[in-house]
Amino acid sequence: MSELIKYVKQDAVAVLTLNRPEKLNALNYATNDRLLALLDTIEDDPAIRAVILTGAGDRAFSAGADIYEFAESIEAGVDVAVREFCKRGQTMTARLEAFPKPVIAAVNGIAFGGGCEITEAVHLAVASNRAIFAKPEINIAIPPTFGGTQRLPRLAGRKRALELLLTGDTFSPEHACAMGLVNKVVPHDNLLPAAFELAERILRHSSLAASRIISAVTRGINTSIEEGLLIEREQFARMAATRDVKEGLHAWMKRREPDYEGH
Predict the structure, then answer these.
(1) How far apart are CA 47 and CA 101, in angstroms?
(2) What tens digit of pLDDT does each residue of 95-141 get?
(3) pLDDT digits over 54-81, tens only?
(4) What DSSP character marks residue 113?
(5) Contact 38, 7 (CB under 8 A)
(6) Is the pTM of this model over 0.90?
(7) What's the rounded Cα separation, in Å, for the pair 161 and 179?
(8) What pLDDT sits at residue 262?
(9) Catalytic site residue from 137, 163, 227, 261
(10) Strand partners, 127
């Protein structure tokens, strides 16, 4: 049996590849659980400072949840379905959203349902010009359950999100970019190089500062501005006494490249 998710280290970047291409990289329960376990491993590895998440094969990033497995949970009853499907998927996307190291989705093809929700949750995303997105859950008479009713409206606005959620229509990578779901669209053959280039632009800076920025944005985005500013101040206070801040200031004043912890 092949690995559900391939894990490769390339310098300071971990590349995670959803690896069920024969199933369009559908997210069965074992894949969700494996992704969470790998994220735990990566968080504890100081040599890894960023993550790129993509899909195996030429067709799909992820077509979403494994419907056959989900149907079995539905047959077992509401409580089972909520626990096995909904809570598991929400835990996975919440973990990606709050992960303390930058996570970049490299969307190489179909990103439907849970695949789209992963894209919504991660910090940054680059899409192939062959990618295609959809919120098709309404076609099986359910709302999105991995965070899609909450994150997409926050990214795209209520009316644009509701059109996609209520119709289930597919939409292009260019439309995803215009809505703020992805950062850029690139030629298919340049997808992973573009994701690595984006990672390198981040990794030249302090990883501690990047983590504090991610925390401030993730925690503050759904609060009032007053609460958000308190979170921002808290994250600054956590950085102010670190070696990285002193090094960054000294390097700037000396007009040299900084030597941050972990570089």
Answers:
(1) 11
(2) 999 999 999 999 999 999 999 999 999 999 999 999 999 999 999 99
(3) 999 999 999 999 999 999 999 999 999 9
(4) T
(5) yes
(6) yes
(7) 9
(8) 74
(9) 137
(10) 107, 185
Cα(110)–Cα(105) distance, integer angstroms: 13
72 is catalytic: no
pLDDT score, position 2: 67
Burial bucket for residue 237 (CB in 10 Å: 0-12, 13-18, 19+): exposed
Nearest to 165 by CA among 138, 132, 131: 138
| Structural tokens at position 56 | 């195996």
Separation in Å, CA 172 to CA 24, 138, 164, 189, 250? 18, 19, 12, 17, 46
Contact 116, 140 (CB under 8 A): no
Q: What is the mean pLDDT of the chain?
A: 96
User: Which is the catalytic residue, given 84, 97, 117, 232?
Assistant: 117
Which amino acid appears at position 66 of this protein?
Answer: D
Dump pLDDT digits (tens) for 195-242. Answer: 999 999 999 999 999 999 999 999 999 999 999 999 999 999 999 999
**Which residue's entry shows tokens 């925690």?**
219
Residue 22 in tokens: 């024969």
Q: How far is CA 253 from CA 207, 244, 248, in A?
A: 20, 14, 9
Asked if 137 is an active-site residue, the reply is: yes
- Ordered DSSP codes for 40-61: HHHHT-TT--EEEEEESTTTEE
How far is the C-alpha of 196 from the C-alpha of 203, rounded, in Å?
10
- Mean of the pLDDT values across residues 160-174? 98
Neighbour-count burial of 17, counting CB atoms closer than 10 A to its CB (0-12 exposed, 13-18 middle, 19+ buried): buried
